[in-house]
Amino acid sequence: MGAVSLADVIAALGGDLHGASETQITRIGPLEGADAGTLSFLSNPRYQAQLAGSTAACVIVAPAFAEAAAARGAAIVTPDPYLYFARLTQWWAARVRPRPVAGIHPSAVIDPSAVIGADVSIGALAVIEAGVNIGDGAQIGPHCVVERNARIGAGSRLSARVTLGFDCQIGERCIVHAGVVIGADGFGFAPNQGQWEKIEQLGAVRIGNDVEIGANTCIDRGALEDTVLEDGVKLDNLIQIGHNVHVGAHTAMAGCAGVAGSARIGAHCTVGGGAIVLGHLSLVDHVHVSAATVVSRSIKQPGQYSGVFPFDDNASWEKNAATLRQLHTLRERLRALEKRGA
Amino acid sequence: MGAVSLADVIAALGGDLHGASETQITRIGPLEGADAGTLSFLSNPRYQAQLAGSTAACVIVAPAFAEAAAARGAAIVTPDPYLYFARLTQWWAARVRPRPVAGIHPSAVIDPSAVIGADVSIGALAVIEAGVNIGDGAQIGPHCVVERNARIGAGSRLSARVTLGFDCQIGERCIVHAGVVIGADGFGFAPNQGQWEKIEQLGAVRIGNDVEIGANTCIDRGALEDTVLEDGVKLDNLIQIGHNVHVGAHTAMAGCAGVAGSARIGAHCTVGGGAIVLGHLSLVDHVHVSAATVVSRSIKQPGQYSGVFPFDDNASWEKNAATLRQLHTLRERLRALEKRGA
Amino acid sequence: MGAVSLADVIAALGGDLHGASETQITRIGPLEGADAGTLSFLSNPRYQAQLAGSTAACVIVAPAFAEAAAARGAAIVTPDPYLYFARLTQWWAARVRPRPVAGIHPSAVIDPSAVIGADVSIGALAVIEAGVNIGDGAQIGPHCVVERNARIGAGSRLSARVTLGFDCQIGERCIVHAGVVIGADGFGFAPNQGQWEKIEQLGAVRIGNDVEIGANTCIDRGALEDTVLEDGVKLDNLIQIGHNVHVGAHTAMAGCAGVAGSARIGAHCTVGGGAIVLGHLSLVDHVHVSAATVVSRSIKQPGQYSGVFPFDDNASWEKNAATLRQLHTLRERLRALEKRGA
């Protein structure tokens, strides 16, 4: 990964350059620890204090910080430095990371009935079953298993070891990380004299465009209808999406979150790490669930919702937790006192 | 998947048909959104209001709703509509989903010492190590790894990418979904001068008959004895079962639950999503743990147990959570007031 | 696995033997249920009562219990019986478990540019990409995917189906269990008019020596710098480690824990099962987080920290949880009473 000049950056991504366009950049990095080859950025005003002393070659800043940034070296001024930084990482990654050569590894096992688009790459030992359809330019990593009649849209990338279940589909430009399982059976059983009778899951999973799914996350197929992730949904690692769940467009969930069956989550929501949404609930658009919160009823108003026991040193927690188990009684005692005082 | 007639359904599954037996069914679906080809069901009286207006071809109902259902079209009357529905999905899936042809994919890597029963199917690129025994009619998905001396009972199905560790065994008619790891080492270490000395895990995993295990769930091998799942246990996705755990028959756990080492969970229990059972505890039969509850001591009486911070809008939660950290002090102040008043 | 004599054990592991050195041992097991071929141990004084009646062939004990143990049969006396037991399991496992024969399975797909050390074993259908470096004596399980330029230190063991991402590295003598994903993208996006713009993750993952990582655990690559696990870290199953996280030496985490991006956890810490550490926090060395606790701010003092809603029978929990939602108001009412009384 040879150096690039600031002129190259500006040519590719725009922005208003203050400073020498021939300055060479060897890495992208945070303000702290930046060296003379570092292109850095200031997006959170909290880190403003780090700006003046930074030895970064160049700093990407909003107009308000243009002067301060330029006073110490080169600067790229742009209305949204964090967005600029995101695009910079994309441009950088495209330069330094070799895209797999299109083509099918000879060790892949591909059913002759599969339809493979142009410029597709299929990694070593991948399995593509009958009736699969893979769009132009898609990349299927080594060891992926794409079951019968599944569809993958143009430009989508599956890392190593992804399972896409039969009849399931992924839209265009999606990114699916290693170990993801899409289309395992939903968890459905009818009780029968103390035992469980399996409800076969007859639906599938439908995933829109520009969706990203983190490592080892699971998205179950629907019981009767499909489980749906709309366009632009972003899921982190180790997330569980139950059967029949519907996740609205551009909603993002952090790692270890779980959504139980038939929950319906709106668009533009965020769900924090380890949070759980119980089944058969609805969350409207623009709901933000804090990490580790358990959503136990539907949410009808946008906003931030939380529910976590505040942590403490163990001794304090033990005392408060023990008292909590008598909280209802405490309220009764308080009431009694109030009555007496009245 | 061509249409079937109600006569076909009744012939296969029984029930008391009200209406024309030649009615054609093209799908199974919920009451809401049912069309003239839909076979629907009413199991939860909560949805009773949807019955009268439903345009479903036929509705499966309990005797109490026979009249109401028949008033609007065909009906199948049966004592337990949900159980009937479950069996209907099984019958339907068997009709519309091709069972893999028995036989071993040429790309599978199978040790010559493995004993493979009759009518077994082994998928592409599966690895079957030395001394493995696979019962009649079992289905091993593509990319499964079955380590040395593991045993799989007759009729069990492993989806793609399942790992069954050495010496571990699975009973008959089990279903194991993609990404499951059975028989990784339990988490055992002896402290040694600030470092950790590994305790090799010398046990294995024993799984009974009719067990289902969800995607990416992990079941560790025992330290000295075996980790055991009895018959009929149902585990959802992304569940962690620690070493030496014993799960009683017909117990079901929802996604993201975790059971720490040496816990003993009774039969006919349910564990909600994200719940955690700490180690070395015992739960008697018929214990039901609510979602996201942390079980921190043994439970000796059947019943429902819960422990979750109720979620709220963020501002309310913050106020209550802050107060919670002083709860013990509040109790002391209440006590002082009570004394003064006495 | 033929029997061994106590003399063999002492020769390998030391300790002070009381009793007949020719006594034959056929298994290692807990005091309870021990038979005449069992070598058992007493490490927790809580189980002292089981000692006298145990029919174990021999019991490993601390000096304080030497007399009691020898009174009932053979005993091995050692200052730290649990550590002795750990080493005994290692010695036992080495005897009874065949080490895979060094060599590369013919079905593995190995890029010619990979550098493979001496005595390495590579399992069936593993994929080793260009530029990979594997140290002497390492064992790569079947179906592993080691991406380009990744490095694996001498003596490390990867179970089946591990993914090690490009440019990531693992030190020496590490153990990585099945399904682990090291080096998936961290979860980073810039908001852009209601949508999410991907921040390419330009860092990697660096893992020290003697680290163990449980099944299906995920460790994301850093955004700009690397995600780091120092020497001796032990992670259980289904753990999520976000991008840029730094875990200090000899820290251990139990199953289902999650650490959000850019958190910094000290050395010699423990994190209980299901606990969550939020992002951008620092925990000093020797911090112990209880199971299911959510760490929402930095911790600057060593010690034990907890925060879990105490579980209860469902009816009691419901009453207390409902009251909890009015806790702040209760405090106000208490204050009012106190004022009135003053």
UniProtKB/TrEMBL annotation, chains A, B, C:
Pathway the protein acts in: Bacterial outer membrane biogenesis; LPS lipid A biosynthesis
GO molecular function, one term: N-acyltransferase activity
UDP-3-O-[3-hydroxymyristoyl] glucosamine N-acyltransferase non-repeat region domain segment(s): 23-91
GO biological process: lipid A biosynthetic process
One Pfam family, short name: Hexapep
Keyword Mitochondrion belongs to the record: no
Its EC number(s): 2.3.1.191
UniProt catalytic activity: a UDP-3-O-[(3R)-3-hydroxyacyl]-alpha-D-glucosamine + a (3R)-hydroxyacyl-[ACP] = a UDP-2-N,3-O-bis[(3R)-3-hydroxyacyl]-alpha-D-glucosamine + holo-[ACP] + H(+)
Primary enzyme class: transferase
Matches recorded under HAMAP family: LpxD
Family membership noted in the UniProt record: Belongs to the transferase hexapeptide repeat family. LpxD subfamily.
Name of this protein: UDP-3-O-acylglucosamine N-acyltransferase
Organism: Kinneretia aquatilis
Gene symbol of the encoding locus: lpxD
